[in-house]
């Protein structure tokens, strides 16, 4: 593209500085063009914007060019929100990939601006619903993990990163990329607040369903305070998930016939916590929990 066209797009983008996301839509849509009404993907997480405004391929290309061309943080953030909203629609997940948009969005997770980083992670999260997109997004997993575990606890960036990692581990294909971060996941689980705990547990549940990840989970060094999550007063959304985590791991061990063999795990590992006497006592106590779902979960887990 010529210099005049570049300057024109950037100049147009500067007008967005004080505007809302709708302004980005108007810029990308241009004149004319009929709206398309599409259904968003079930697991998409729209941050805001209108479900009625869906960009077509030409408009998305212009928006990606704007995102790549400008250094204005306000424009970058608005463009990322708009792309993230567009990526909530399955057709646009494919279009953005075919336009080369994933590396453009992915480059923004390097931004020192936490708000831009968060919006880029949100956009990648919506894009990652498409399995083919995950092949391109997986190159960012290590960096996302580093940001999640070294950044501020309970921050918007941390939660956005955890949501992306959760989507990327729905299938077994890329779970091995998190093998060296399992201990860190348990640390965030134990130190984070409610929403952070729930998001980490969603991720751990994905890993726990894969027999190939069982040894890594059980070998992780986990603080003994983990067992407090099995106390009867723990919030149901957390308690049910930690019980399911135990159940999934137990199922994987049974499939491999390893419950009868003493695995080579060290003291302080998750294995010694889950299969120790203290945990067994907590399981027995939960048999008298007032919630029927909790009691049902406990009865499924055989006593160790």
Automatic annotation (TrEMBL):
It is found in: Mitochondrion outer membrane. Gene3D superfamilies: Leucine-rich Repeat Variant (1.25.10.10). One of its GO terms (cellular component) is mitochondrial outer membrane. The chain crosses the membrane at residues 6-28. Its main location: mitochondrion. It comes from the Eukaryota. Residues 55-274 form the Armadillo repeat-containing domain. InterPro entries: ARM-like, ARM-rpt_dom, ARM-type_fold, Armcx_regulator. Pfam families: Arm_2. It is a single-pass membrane protein. This is Armadillo repeat containing 10. It comes from Equus caballus. The lineage of its organism: Eukaryota, Metazoa, Chordata, Craniata, Vertebrata. The gene is ARMC10.
